[in-house]
Design brief:
Elements lengths: L1 E10 L7 E11 L4 E6 L5 H9 L6 E6 L2 E2 L5 H4 L3 E4 L13 H9 L13 H14 L16 H13 L5 E5 L7 H18 L3 E4 L3 H6 L3 E6 L2 E7 H5 L3 H12 L7 H4 L1
Parallel strand pairs: 3-8, 3-9, 6-7, 7-8
Antiparallel strand pairs: 1-2, 1-4, 4-5, 9-10
Length: 264
């Protein structure tokens, strides 16, 4: 479903601030893979996610989504392949619009517009059912402005919006980092459920080793723009935080000293 071939990206080339962010990334995600991505600050986690999303062009290599080479496509033209949930709960939704209006916008993304009523009764029932499945009571607040929601409610709604049209790949960019631990757990459980029900392929960047181990069927560790560890299936299911830290030290030749990865 997703293929990255020998992808390189350098920021500020030829200056004193030159930074090689991606250093020959090769990665393949099969349909239905839920991959968590871990690594220290500056490892390249968010950079590779942004490369997939087309936030900026890569220097060399190729990116293929569901058999289509999207390397040359700008961000807005890749949007039809992707769903995305950002770290900031304020992104991904329109604060001054109603919950049901946000859902309607997401449902109509990429479709032609008509003079039909904004939201039909049938659509309202569909949205109410989807919101009920979140278990946050939002089905009774469909006409409320999104700006009145808590961070966790807003992230859950953004997740729902990002998956309404069943994207080829769901990108989760540290989407629980700004939430308190209890709310983050709720959003992660919702994430698991949405991915499983819709049989989605997902790519989740996180600083939290515990979450990286507990969620998904595959874990990738990055360091200095490279993938240094890739584990899946039963091996991942039995992985511990200590083993993950030891593996990082063994492969990278250094240890994680002071980093949000350890604090998490």
């Amino acid at each position: 479903m997703l293929e990255l071939h020998n992808v390189y990206k350098t920021f500020n080339p030829g200056t004193v601030n030159e930074k090689r962010a991606l250093n020959g990334i090769d990665l393949t995600l099969n349909e239905g893979d839920f991959v968590t991505v871990i690594g220290s600050n500056g490892a390249g986690k968010s950079t590779v996610l942004n490369a997939i999303a087309g936030v900026w062009p890569i220097d060399s290599g190729s990116i293929v989504i569901d058999g289509q080479d999207v390397t040359a496509l700008p961000e807005h033209k890749r949007a039809k392949f992707l769903g995305r949930v950002f770290q900031d709960p304020m992104n991904g939704t329109a604060a001054t619009m109603q919950i049901q209006e946000n859902l309607a916008l997401a449902k109509r993304r990429g479709k032609s517009r008509t003079l039909m009523p904004g939201i039909t009764r049938r659509e309202q029932e569909e949205y109410r059912e989807l919101l009920r499945d979140l278990g946050l009571g939002l089905e009774d607040r469909m006409t409320s402005k999104v700006g009145l929601l808590s961070g966790g409610q807003r992230q859950a709604l953004t997740l729902l919006m990002a998956t309404l049209q069943k994207p080829k790949v769901l990108l989760l960019d540290e989407h629980t980092a700004a939430l308190d631990p209890k709310t983050a757990e709720t959003v992660l459980n919702t994430t698991d459920a949405v991915i499983e029900v819709n049989h989605l392929t997902a790519f989740m960047v996180t600083h939290n080793m515990k979450d990286a181990i507990a969620h998904g069927n595959r874990l990738i560790m990055m360091n200095e723009g490279k993938i240094i560890f890739d584990v899946a299936g039963e091996e991942k299911a039995h992985l511990t935080m200590k083993e993950l830290l030891d593996k990082f030290a063994e492969i990278s030749g250094s240890s994680i000293q002071s980093d949000k990865t350890l604090l998490a």
